[in-house]
Design brief:
The complex is a heterodimer of chains A (224) and B (210). By secondary structure, chain A is α+β, with helices and mostly antiparallel strands. Chain A is built from 3 helices and 12 strands. The chains are: A alpha+beta (224), B alpha+beta (210).
Chain lengths: 224, 210
């Protein structure tokens, strides 16, 4: 019996082999469709690629947590986690006093008058910042020694916190005051609430004489 | 009957070698992989290249570190400044007087190793930066707020410090932090050196009361 195989072209040419007919697969009427598994794999690949592109484009600069800022006005109370904060206003000076020392700067001193109390437990509000119209950010200066704020729940303290800023930061007549209740790095890395207020500052009203920073004081009940 | 492991290993190696060179495309790819590095090595491509020395910046001229500019002025030697922070084995400080000005959008802290004094033992890192105007410790610098600072390095033998010192300035490059995903400045190579002269004019606010 002839071997059921496809003929070698040479064998066919010489007629040296008899070749049995092999069943030839008839073309079907409908085209062959890919298996559903292939479609699934392709879809998963496309989804993975899309996720990769999105994740790659989401960077710190895109600010993925823009909704965490809590806007509040000067003169009103705002609650930020364990703090109740009330901003009264600001003044500007060329020189400030730290005890008997005069502190000078290449820019200006911005003194922000604010008071705060705690909500649940005694805590210090350490992280405050100022951002100007150019996006430059400054935190509370370490050059001036801050008084002791012994704030507690419903125990309000008032005083001034000091920022060192260039004169150009005040040119627009206002700055953004930022209150970071759990630290600045936390506020910028995770979607937690932080305070933001537009703080009017008069760039023309700069004290030229050395200014004494207001001492921290305990406020009577109901006062801010 | 089991075959011994040595012939089995040899036959395995032979099979693997044959698999590598079985076809012409594989032979070409293998020879390129072997020959190209050999050719590069033969032409001296893997030699260690001597880098040119970093440029000299005159004292008093600004140099861009990346996030900030530094202007190195002079240095002083003293055992009258920041005496409370002096290490036990040090007689005093060498204070390199600089002006620093940040031109980034945010505050920036001077890394310890950016300004170094290689002539001093232990001069690779700044011990403290002190603002000359009010004797406060420098913690961070605000954008566009130039600050005159004394960078202090402890010295075991004050008499051994001469009248000139070389100051190395490392440039910084901004890269994305792997863990935090934020941009940070990382110190790199020495980008410039400055030869500074000794001054006897110590900033008055820095001198401790006796």
């Amino acid at each position: 019996m002839p071997t059921p195989r496809y003929p070698d072209p040479h064998e066919l040419h010489t007629g040296s082999v008899a070749v049995a007919d092999l069943p030839v697969e008839q073309p079907t009427a409908t085209p062959r469709r890919p298996r559903s598994g292939s479609w699934l794999a392709a879809a998963m690949l496309a989804v993975l690629l899309a996720v990769g592109v999105v994740v790659d484009s989401v960077t710190a600069e895109n600010n993925p947590h823009p909704g965490a800022a809590v806007s509040f006005a000067v003169g009103e109370d705002v609650t930020l986690q364990n703090f109740r904060v009330h901003v009264n206003g600001a003044r500007v000076a060329e020189t400030i006093l730290d005890g008997e020392r005069q502190l000078e700067t290449a820019g200006l001193w911005l003194l922000v008058d604010l008071s705060y109390a705690n909500v649940r437990r005694p805590d210090l509000l350490n992280d405050l910042g100022v951002r100007d119209h150019q996006g430059r950010t400054y935190s509370v200066t370490d050059r001036h020694s801050r008084g002791t704020w012994r704030a507690a729940p419903d125990t309000w303290f008032r005083g001034e916190v000091v920022f060192e800023v260039p004169a150009s930061a005040l040119a627009e007549g206002e700055v953004e005051l930022l209150v970071w209740p759990s630290g600045r790095s936390q506020a910028e890395m995770v979607p937690m609430r932080y305070g933001s207020t537009r703080l009017p500052v008069d760039p023309a009203a700069v004290a030229t004489e050395p200014v004494e920073v207001a001492a921290v004081e305990l406020l009577p009940a109901g006062q801010r | 009957m089991t075959s011994s492991p040595a012939p089995a290993l040899a036959s395995g190696v032979r099979a693997a070698a044959w698999a590598l060179v079985r076809t012409w495309p594989r032979r070409v790819a293998l020879s390129v992989l072997v020959l190209v590095p050999a050719l590069v090595a033969g032409l001296g491509g893997f030699r260690t290249v001597e880098l040119p020395p970093p440029p000299q910046v005159p004292a008093g001229e600004p140099f861009d570190l990346g996030p900030a500019a530094v202007r190195v002025e002079s240095f002083f030697v003293s055992d009258q400044v920041l005496t409370g922070m002096l290490p036990e084995d040090a007689q005093g400080w060498v204070g390199v007087l600089v002006e620093l000005s940040v031109h980034a959008d945010d505050e920036w802290s001077l890394p310890d190793e950016v300004v170094a004094v290689p002539d001093l033992p232990g001069g690779e890192e700044v011990a403290y930066g002190v603002i000359t105007q009010d004797d406060s410790i420098l913690t961070r610098l605000g954008p566009d707020l130039p600050q005159r600072v004394a960078l202090l390095y402890p010295v075991a033998d004050l008499g051994a410090v001469g009248g000139q010192l070389q100051v190395d300035l490392r440039t910084l490059t901004e890269e994305r932090s792997f863990f935090e995903g934020t941009m940070r400045w990382y110190p790199g190579e020495v980008g410039a050196t400055v030869q500074v002269s000794r001054t006897e004019q110590i900033p008055p606010a820095m001198i401790d009361e006796q």
